[in-house]
Amino acid sequence: MDGTFQEEGSARIVKFRPPLYKQRYQFIKDLVEKYKPKKVADLGCADCSLLWMLKFCSCIEVLSGVDICASVMKEKMYKLAPLPGDYLQPSERSLTITLHHGSVAHKDPCMLGFDLVTCIELIEHLEQSELKKFPEVVFGFMAPSIVVISTPNSEFNPLLPVETSFRHPDHKFEWNRAQFQNWALEAARCYDYSVEFTGVGQPPRGMEKVGFCTQIGVFVRKYPLSEAIQPEKATKAAYKTVFKAVYPSLKEEKYLQNAVVTEVIFSAQSIMQRLPGHRLMAGHEDNGDPTETKPKFQPSMNRFSEDLGKGAVARSLEPFVNGNAVSIPLSTLFSFPKVRRLCCSFERFCKLISGKVTLSSDGSAAIFYTDCEDEEN
Amino acid sequence: MTGRARARARGRPPGQETAVPSVGASSIQQTLLNQPPGFRQPQQPHVPTSLSEEPGGRGRQRGSQRLQISAGFQEMSLADRGGRRRDFHDIGVNTRQAMEHVQESKTGSSGVMIKLTTNYFRLMSRPQWALYQYHVSYNPEMEARRLRSALLFQHEELIGKTHAFDGSILFLPKNLGNKVTEVFSRTRNGEDVKITITLTNELPPTSPTCLQFYNIIFRRLLKMLNLQQIGRNYYNPSDPISIPKHRLMVWPGFASSILQYEQSIMLCTDVSYKVLRSETVLDFMCSLYRQVEEQRFRDACAKELIGLIVLTKYNNRTYRVDDIDWDASPQCTFTKADGSEITFVDYYKRQYNQEITDLKQPVLISQSKRRRGTLVQVPVVLIPELCFLTGLTEKMRSDFNMMKDLSSHTRLPPDQRQREIGRLIDYIRKDDNVQKELRDWGLSFDSNLLSFPGRVIQGEKILQSGRVFDYNPQLADWSKEMRGAPLICAKPLENWLLLYTRRNYELANALLQNLFKVTPSMGIRMNKATMIEVEDRTESYLRVLQQSITPDTNIAVCLLSSSRKDKYDAIKKYLCTDCPVPSQCVLARTLSKPQAVMTVATKIALQMNCKMGGELWTVEIPLKQVMVVGIDCYHDTLSGKHSIGGFVANLNQTMTRWFSRCVVQGRGQEIVDGLKACLQTALRDWFKWNKYLPSRVIVYRDGVGDGQLHTLVNYEVPQFLDCLKSVGKDYNPKLTVIVVKKRVNTRFFAQSGGSLKNPPPGTVVDVEVTRPEWYDFYIVSQAVRSGCVAPTHYNVIYDTSGLKPDHLQRLTYKLCHMYYNWSGVIRVPAPCQYAHKLAFLVGQSIHREPNLLLSDRLYYL
């Protein structure tokens, strides 16, 4: 993970591998893996790259981005929308991604209650007046459990091929380690946070004294947050929502029901196919000579037992056929691991399929109808 | 049955696929009729090339970061750059201007008026609307696009809120007043930058750049409506139709485009259905594993999966499965762009937090199509567990019940379809953001579907030897009327073979008995077949054929016990090349229903008669000395190695006999060279038959993809002309080239009383929805029993015939009556369908040009 550098010829050109921005993102990802925050906000989210990476972290349920420039966010915000795959197999977790247009110098109640707030290469873009308000907004108002702030370490600059004074024309300042740490310690003290310093972008060998290329402060709130939001925090909204995506999730009744019904009907089909007297599946009519060598591919055993839980199907309650109706006990259907996993309890299972699957008169079994097998081909 | 015909027409199914290719009854029942659009496989979208052996879905992210930024604009400026992307709408191919006789009018007049509604909406712009195109430059030069943007939009009061900017080209709905506007911006660290905004173009609403611009804006709108793009179309994921029995998920959506049509710029939108499957490729493999014997498992996987389009879980990209690598697994490593090695498991875990649970699964290989720079194509590796299946497998297509379930959802009757189409406009009208965007650009859509009058040209009289009859114009079918009538030319079955396996002895006899019953009324003289029992092995069939076929053999009939394709292929290959004798394969299953055997035998008798050079019926063709050519292509998508061009041309005035040849084109060869040779032979044979040369040649060219029109106009037509010239100095026939397109989004609805119906067969449309720069028209020639009828688009790209549009339209419609495998009107002129059948047979089974001794018969039916 740590950056390496190359020295080409006599000129010292430090190149990071992976690139520095990726190292910063990876740092956040690692932090998310470690603390498992549920609500994460990225201040200064720009083109949403970090948010896009974070949406794959399964612990996160709420993901928000804030940026002062709406057009930059809008340009790529659709990559935060759910994908077809998210609809095809709704995830267990719920996920809502929202983008707000606004300034980190303003308070908005939608930023309350977050577990992690990241400010990656943000503060050096702030005007003096904004920077002054920043600690109050982030540490005082938002007051998340963890805040991560990264900013360039100016001591590293002589090693970079930058001719201007700052690494980026829009930077208002670039701090050395002492400056950053003083600012950070002051903010932490003021708002009752602890702070630890680290960074990404290792300096070249022999130059360790300059420190990381990007310096990072990780702030952790020292006091527990009372559940109720203090009334004085209920300020008026200052941000404008530019994007909102609610991912399909099994937490939503609609998707859960659909998943359960789909699984039940599919399982029922496979039971029906194995019932005696049922036509064999296609593919057996051929009597070609088996010339192929034995395949090495073996689907893992766990998948097999999971899919067609032969052992799990209670022997005493066998499905039975009546004309073209097949009656399958609900307990049999519930014994399929996938169904069981989705529903958790039998009661919930019954509730979910009610109205979607035909039940027997006593309600103990589901009735499925076989198609007329008349192939018109 | 449904869906398959289309798949074939497009040459999609993998080479070794079974699914009863033209065996017996399947080909008898082969309908070309209406296929619901939902069953369309999208044209394989361009898969971005991955740089090194990297897993699917990464290539683009890094490599083309810069390109992606202005993806919209790229498309916009493609005309200038010579097309990185294909122009699917063939904009800018202006063929009408070269045709004197249709300069004034390209509309016909015959027939009865009919009130039609279509799936087009007018795009409306403010009066005097124009799009202003500016070039923006910076001094000092600013590199970062974001910065360029930020600096420019410091002057929002000047530019306005509505704009499209890619970093150098700026589109505005308003004029800034001056040709050159200079403004100054200050970067946040105090640097002053001069920005020069130069007006480069004032685009009228109809300019091609504007059209592309509309489409870009429209795609923006569709995204705002939360529709998901898959391939070229947009789908609504929040309201899926789920068919749990088959683990299918059908997303309703829209195919749409904005183009300049005859009178106005319009949005054409049709309902489209995307069949997705809520199972992964791994799930599918596992259930397949339970269904087939172990030794056939890999084969079965290849059969079912290769050629399918999969959708990756972690990004919105589709790939075609080209191969399965059984020796690899997710534990294999690949080299990342930075040179480090990583396993697929770790990669997906790290990049997308996707857990791969089955570490022993094989991997899928997709050959990417797009080449970037000089890089060689590198296959993309995909993990079955992380890929969803899309579309239908061949097996599903042949599952009648499944297709029935599916079509109940996707095959919409006219009024319902119209409602669904109207929903898109409803969405647009109800969404505030969308409305605002449109308003800001000064654009809006008409809320009503376009209505206009069309014409129904009269039905044809069917002529059989000495008999003339009409058919029911609503059904466009004359199988009943034909019953018991003698054929125009009946070929005797004097000396013929019937091969069967022991198990099918009874069926073979039943077939023979029923043929004896049905042939006399047709006028076919028939002797008892030489019945030969064979073992159910390919070699056995071939050996018997080798031993028993004599120069006198009329036809060889093989009763096949299963739809194993290899057997069928071997028989066809032998009898079409080495030993040119017409052949008829019949699947035993087709004869298994005693009550249907007579009907089946009737159809087989007709088919056999055609294959031996017999003639069934004709229609009146007033045009004399005309040679009609049909061309279609078959693309071998599996091996990607060759394409087949099928070529047919009539040999006689009544269009009952057809000459055929085909071009087997290797990689890198142009199909057109071969077509030239085909035309030459066709003319020679025509001369042999008629003792004169045709004075007119009319080519119906099918199998032209979207965006290929340009090539056709510039290469193929000159080659045809060349070829005609080479025949002789004094020979100067009139040439007409018509591009035939079945896959169009245009739909017509006939207003009848308060409801909408399918327009009747014979409906011709040559106004409003045609293109001003073309000599084109639509014909609805076939009838459908359910769903919506699809019109066929005809684009006359070259015409020195001087024929009136009316005459060309009538001739085209007449030719739709002449396909002998279907006693009814079909969707395309018969020569196109014959060419299709030929190309398909050769592409699927024979793989080289059939023996020319067969070239005057419809042996490929």
UniProtKB/TrEMBL annotation, chain A:
<keyword id="KW-0949">S-adenosyl-L-methionine</keyword>
<dbReference type="GO" id="GO:0090486">
    <property type="term" value="F:small RNA 2'-O-methyltransferase activity"/>
</dbReference>
<keyword id="KW-0460">Magnesium</keyword>
<dbReference type="GO" id="GO:0005737">
    <property type="term" value="C:cytoplasm"/>
</dbReference>
<dbReference type="InterPro" id="IPR029063">
    <property type="entry name" value="SAM-dependent_MTases_sf"/>
</dbReference>
<dbReference type="GO" id="GO:0005634">
    <property type="term" value="C:nucleus"/>
</dbReference>
<keyword id="KW-0943">RNA-mediated gene silencing</keyword>
<dbReference type="GO" id="GO:0034587">
    <property type="term" value="P:piRNA processing"/>
</dbReference>
<dbReference type="GO" id="GO:0003723">
    <property type="term" value="F:RNA binding"/>
</dbReference>
<dbReference type="GO" id="GO:0046872">
    <property type="term" value="F:metal ion binding"/>
</dbReference>
<keyword id="KW-0489">Methyltransferase</keyword>
<keyword id="KW-0479">Metal-binding</keyword>
<keyword id="KW-0694">RNA-binding</keyword>
<protein>
    <recommendedName>
        <fullName>Small RNA 2'-O-methyltransferase</fullName>
        <ecNumber>2.1.1.386</ecNumber>
    </recommendedName>
</protein>
<keyword id="KW-0808">Transferase</keyword>
<dbReference type="GO" id="GO:0001510">
    <property type="term" value="P:RNA methylation"/>
</dbReference>
<dbReference type="InterPro" id="IPR026610">
    <property type="entry name" value="Hen1"/>
</dbReference>
<dbReference type="GO" id="GO:0030422">
    <property type="term" value="P:siRNA processing"/>
</dbReference>
<comment type="similarity">
    <text>Belongs to the methyltransferase superfamily. HEN1 family.</text>
</comment>
UniProtKB/TrEMBL annotation, chain B:
<dbReference type="Pfam" id="PF23278">
    <property type="entry name" value="Piwi_N"/>
</dbReference>
<feature type="domain" description="PAZ">
    <location>
        <begin position="280"/>
        <end position="391"/>
    </location>
</feature>
<feature type="domain" description="Piwi">
    <location>
        <begin position="555"/>
        <end position="847"/>
    </location>
</feature>
<dbReference type="Pfam" id="PF05831">
    <property type="entry name" value="GAGE"/>
</dbReference>
<keyword id="KW-0460">Magnesium</keyword>
<dbReference type="GO" id="GO:0004519">
    <property type="term" value="F:endonuclease activity"/>
</dbReference>
<keyword id="KW-0694">RNA-binding</keyword>
<dbReference type="Pfam" id="PF02170">
    <property type="entry name" value="PAZ"/>
</dbReference>
<dbReference type="GO" id="GO:0006417">
    <property type="term" value="P:regulation of translation"/>
</dbReference>
<dbReference type="InterPro" id="IPR003165">
    <property type="entry name" value="Piwi"/>
</dbReference>
<dbReference type="GO" id="GO:0046872">
    <property type="term" value="F:metal ion binding"/>
</dbReference>
<dbReference type="Pfam" id="PF02171">
    <property type="entry name" value="Piwi"/>
</dbReference>
<dbReference type="GO" id="GO:0034584">
    <property type="term" value="F:piRNA binding"/>
</dbReference>
<keyword id="KW-0479">Metal-binding</keyword>
<dbReference type="GO" id="GO:0005737">
    <property type="term" value="C:cytoplasm"/>
</dbReference>
<keyword id="KW-0540">Nuclease</keyword>
<dbReference type="GO" id="GO:0051321">
    <property type="term" value="P:meiotic cell cycle"/>
</dbReference>
<keyword id="KW-0963">Cytoplasm</keyword>
<feature type="region of interest" description="Disordered">
    <location>
        <begin position="1"/>
        <end position="81"/>
    </location>
</feature>
<dbReference type="InterPro" id="IPR031320">
    <property type="entry name" value="GAGE"/>
</dbReference>
<dbReference type="InterPro" id="IPR003100">
    <property type="entry name" value="PAZ_dom"/>
</dbReference>
<dbReference type="GO" id="GO:0031047">
    <property type="term" value="P:regulatory ncRNA-mediated gene silencing"/>
</dbReference>
